[in-house]
Design goal:
Elements (H helix, E strand, L loop, with lengths): L4 E7 L6 H21 L4 E7 L2 H13 L3 E8 L9 H6 L4 E5 L13 H6 L2 H14 L5 E4 L5 H21 L2 E5 L13 H8 L2 E5 L1 H9 L3 H14 L1 E2 L4 H21 L3 E3 L14 H8 L3 E3 L4 H13 L7 E12 L2 E7 L14 E4 L11 E4 L5 E10 L4 E11 L12 E6 L3 H11 L4 E5 L4 H11 L2 E5 L5 H16 L3
Parallel strand pairs: 1-2, 1-3, 3-4, 4-5, 6-7, 6-9, 8-13, 9-10, 16-19
Antiparallel strand pairs: 11-12, 11-18, 12-17, 13-14, 15-16, 15-18, 16-17
Helix pairs in contact: 6-12, 6-14, 8-10, 9-10, 10-11, 13-15
The chain binds manganese (II) ion.
The site of manganese (II) ion has 5 residues, from loops.
């Protein structure tokens, strides 16, 4: 495992004398150590900063050190912010201003001017906040007592997001074939994507994949079949078909691992030399943490891989999803999402079944796939679209429900949900914003995390929540358009 951590930088100055500075340092160390026990990454105390030099040095080191995923800053005392300008102006890593203080209560009898000079976060954090605002820094501000569970959870979420951002900066996406013919929303500027997100998106020939498939041994397939048996129920006798999916999975994974890719796309219009569209193969790869996008959709594939890293334990409950059909009956208004085959089984409500059915699209043999229902619970759907000149990240709050119908003849994984604020308004907002039919559906990444991710990447963010109206969204999009054309 690569070492990954966040740095804790505490602002102060020489004005208060050595005793105060020693106390500040001791408390900062104590806070970093205690917080590290609950946070998903260590928070490492670095320095009580008192000079321009100290601050510039630590920010440069943070940028340079690949183990540092971001900087958390706090001002125990007042720290004049002109000495922060050079360091903050250079910092490129995610930055969080933790507006907290050591103690949670004002001690009635004890409080005097010495106490005030030592415990003046309310004072120091404002000076510190101004300079970041003046620099137009991309940052996160979290306020509250550092032992408060809600504060710790928000800091933890921000850390997971920053880890996703670091993952994004080095992500490589393997494309087999190009986009589905004539489709617009899956297109995009790959050069701009690399500038903004760091993604290296490149294409490999399907012929190379077929060659790699031919070289897969029966022994390798046996081993993967054992993995399938451990995770899934077999609802088919057709082992030949399932083994063919295993062959595809092994070959795709070999090619990705060889090139250091952690996300991939394919296109049912280009399966030359392949007997089946990869279904189970893609699904099991997604369960392992690889991103996937159908029809050549590299944007959704990359976002899925990143959102999995941003979820719990670095491989969370985020899945490639597609809006398919609605239930528009009064009192029971839902969206039904699925894909031809490829939905990640980490979002399954129960143990998935391997089934073999014909596929009307793609002109190949009946493929094996995992069939299941998605879990109930609050979730989000996320779509990244290229607006021409900028990327827009759209996030909608949804509530997933147990499908209201058994749908026995639907041979794919499916999820049923209620869009916020309600089905019709939700659809109108999504369509108004230009959201795609492909999305990433996530149970464990939050809308706040997606907003933080957009901030870290310097892209537009649109959130459709229970409070959104079509009018307010239209105004927001209109103003965003002007702001982005002006360069924000
Ligand atoms: Mn699709």
């Amino acid at each position: 495992m690569k070492k990954q951590e966040f740095w804790f930088v505490v602002g102060s100055q020489f004005l208060y004398g050595p005793e105060v500075l020693e106390t500040v340092e001791a408390r900062a160390k104590e806070m970093a150590a205690e917080l590290s026990r609950t946070l998903p990454y260590p928070l490492v105390y670095k320095v009580t900063a008192k000079t321009n030099r100290e601050i510039t040095d630590v920010m440069r080191e943070a940028d340079y050190d690949p183990s540092c995923l971001g900087v958390v800053a706090w001002c125990h005392t007042f720290s004049p912010s002109k000495m922060w300008i050079n360091g903050l102006a250079e910092l490129r890593k995610p930055y969080c201003h933790l507006a907290t203080q050591y103690g949670s209560e004002i001690p009635n009898d004890e409080i005097d001017m010495d106490f005030m000079n030592l415990n003046q976060s309310a004072h120091g954090d404002r000076e510190h906040g101004f300079i970041a605002a003046r620099l137009r820094m991309k940052r996160k501000v979290i306020a509250g007592h550092w032992k408060d569970k809600r504060v710790q959870e928000r800091l933890a979420s921000w850390m997971r997001t920053a880890a996703g951002a670091a993952f994004s900066r080095q992500l490589r996406v393997m494309r087999f074939s190009d986009n589905m013919r004539e489709v617009a929303v899956t297109e995009g500027d790959k050069v701009e994507a690399q500038i903004k997100f760091g993604w290296q998106v490149n294409t490999w020939p399907v012929g190379k994949l077929v060659e790699t498939m031919d070289a897969v041994t029966e022994k390798e397939i046996d081993a993967l079949m054992d993995e399938y048996r451990a995770s899934y129920d077999f609802a088919t006798e057709d082992m030949k078909t399932v083994r063919y999916q295993a062959r595809e999975e092994i070959a795709i994974r070999k090619m990705m691992d060889k090139e250091g890719c952690e996300a991939f796309t394919n296109n049912f219009q280009d399966l030359y030399g392949m007997e089946q569209l990869p279904g189970l193969a893609s699904q099991h790869l997604m369960a392992l943490g690889y991103g996937y996008g159908g029809e050549g959709d590299w944007k959704v594939s990359a976002m899925m891989a990143i959102m999995k890293r941003m979820g719990k334990d670095g491989n969370g409950e985020s899945a490639f999803m597609e809006d398919y059909t609605y239930n528009l009956a009064p009192g029971a208004k839902y969206s039904l999402g699925a894909h031809m085959l490829e939905v990640c089984p980490t979002i399954a409500a129960a143990r998935p079944r391997i089934e073999v059915h014909p596929l009307g699209i793609g002109d190949r043999k009946d493929p094996a796939r995992l069939v299941f229902e998605g879990k109930e619970g609050d979730a989000i759907v996320v779509s990244l679209v290229d607006m021409g000149g900028r990327f827009r990240l759209i996030c909608q709050d949804i509530k997933c429900v147990k499908p209201i119908l058994p749908m026995p003849n639907l041979p794919v994984a499916r999820v049923m949900w209620q869009a916020m604020p309600d089905l019709e308004t939700g659809i109108e907002c999504w369509i108004t914003a230009g959201g795609a039919h492909h999305s990433v559906l996530s149970y464990d990444v939050t809308a706040e995390q997606m907003k933080d991710f957009a901030t870290m990447m310097g892209i537009e963010f649109v959130h459709i929540s229970k409070d959104t109206t079509v009018d307010s969204l239209e105004k927001e999009l209109f103003l965003n358009d002007i702001a982005w054309k002006l360069g924000q």
